[in-house]
Specification:
- Helices cover 42% and strands 15% of the residues.
- The protein is of the alpha/beta class.
- It has two domains: 190 residues, Rossmann fold, CATH 3.40.50.2000; 167 residues, Rossmann fold (3-Layer(aba) Sandwich).
- A six-stranded parallel sheet has the order 2-1-3-4-5-6, with helices on both faces. A six-stranded parallel sheet has the order 9-8-7-10-11-12, with helices on both faces.
- Strand 7, helix 7 and strand 8 form a beta-alpha-beta unit.
- The protein starts with 10 loop residues before the first strand and ends with a helix.
Length: 383
């Protein structure tokens, strides 16, 4: 069989065992804009551990029914929530030769847990065997790929014998980087008068460092710097106590608080803010930051994790002021600098579109053709 053309339209079987959050936000816009023809099989975003355990069996049964009815595909796409090795072991011989791409939004080896002994290595090993069973492994950032691959040997040392250290280079050799896409953000109109408007938008969990953020707000207050603040994000069963304390402490400065149930409210919050701040201790990509910058927010981020990669295209004259050293004092100093620039009507140093342009590569109209071509390349490499 000859190689597939890059503009070829293919039949794609997509298996998403956790169809929610970033997983759904990745698939839906891609499928909508794709030139390929998709069959999407999903499971609800509930009880992720059980999804990883039973998804392979459930999808194998569903695919078998489709094949019996005469359906066939050119390539398979799944996320890290599928036990791909088990799924490939259960499917019919007619499906087994199909090329498979596994996309890693996260992984269960370096995903943060409050107590390391809480980590279930079974799921970390499932991620590894999924990557080994795939023909290509796609990551949302090079940081994610490199951090995960560096952690695998440490995990394998826990095995009593037969440690498959060669797995790291096998996975690396078939790895590609394809970022999370972002949609059209609200267009910024005339800024309303007032002090620096600060946005913090992340999951309300310990690994996003909320204590550091609120400590920095205290530092600004002590320095006499006026500000407004919006604290967005989804909360779960265990919300760090600092959020309740901060809501009371900064009641007079708060513009928006908590999860925005509709996109209009979320986009409005982004459009109103001047600065997007991160205090994350772990971030595989940073879609919230990318969306905020696309809406016109100036980024102030710790110089670590995926953030330098995320802002790799930003103007070098702005780059030093987009990062701080990761400490509270550094964040306070950065916010004071940006507040002074805003007061002088020069937050973006003469060109407010610099940030918007820097993250333009993540917009779906640009990203979808790259993703489509990646599937064609994977399929063509096995022809």
């Amino acid at each position: 069989m000859g190689r597939m053309r890059q503009d070829s339209a293919m039949r794609v079987l997509a298996l998403e065992a956790y169809y929610g959050g970033s997983h759904r936000a990745f698939l839906d816009p891609w499928i909508e804009g794709s030139r390929h023809h998709w069959t999407l099989m999903t499971l609800p975003p509930f009880k992720w551990k059980w999804r990883m355990r039973h998804g392979a069996v459930t999808f194998a049964e569903r695919v078998a029914k489709r094949v019996a009815a005469g359906e066939m595909w050119d390539v398979v796409f799944c996320s890290d929530m599928l036990d791909l090795a088990t799924w490939r072991g259960l499917i019919s011989p007619a499906i087994h030769p199909l090329p498979v791409v596994a996309y890693f939004h996260e992984n269960q080896l370096t995903y943060p847990v409050q107590v390391e002994k809480e980590r279930d290595i079974h799921f970390a090993l499932t991620n590894m065997t999924t990557a080994l069973a795939a023909h290509e492994v796609w990551f949302n950032s090079a940081f994610h790929r490199d951090e995960w691959l560096a952690a695998i040997p440490r995990m394998l040392k826990r095995m009593p014998d037969y440690q498959p250290y060669d797995a790291v280079e096998q996975i690396r050799s078939r790895s590609w980087i394809y970022p999370q896409g972002i949609g059209d953000m609200a267009k910024r109109g005339s800024r309303q008068p007032g002090p620096l408007r600060i946005l913090w938008a992340a999951r309300w969990e310990f690994d996003k460092g909320p204590e550091d953020f609120f400590a920095a707000l205290e530092g600004l207050r002590r320095a006499g710097v006026a500000f407004r603040v919006s604290v967005l994000g989804e909360s779960f069963r265990r919300v760090p106590a600092v959020f309740a304390l901060a809501r009371e402490r900064f009641a007079e400065e708060i513009d928006r608080w908590g999860y925005q149930p509709d996109r209009e409210g979320y986009l409005a919050a982004l459009s109103e803010a001047d600065v997007i701040v991160s205090t994350a201790r772990h971030e595989f990509f940073g879609v919230g930051v990318a969306e905020a910058v696309a809406a016109g927010c100036y980024p102030l981020l710790p110089k670590r994790l995926a953030y330098p990669e995320l802002l790799s295209a930003i103007d070098p004259t702005l780059r030093p002021d987009c990062f701080y050293d990761g400490c509270v004092d550094g964040l306070v100093a950065g916010l004071k600098t940006l507040a002074a620039r805003l007061a002088a009507d020069d937050l973006w140093r003469g060109d407010p579109k610099r940030g918007v342009d820097a993250v333009a590569e993540f917009h779906w109209p640009r990203l979808v053709p790259r993703l489509d071509d990646g599937l064609v390349r994977c399929a063509g490499s096995l022809c």
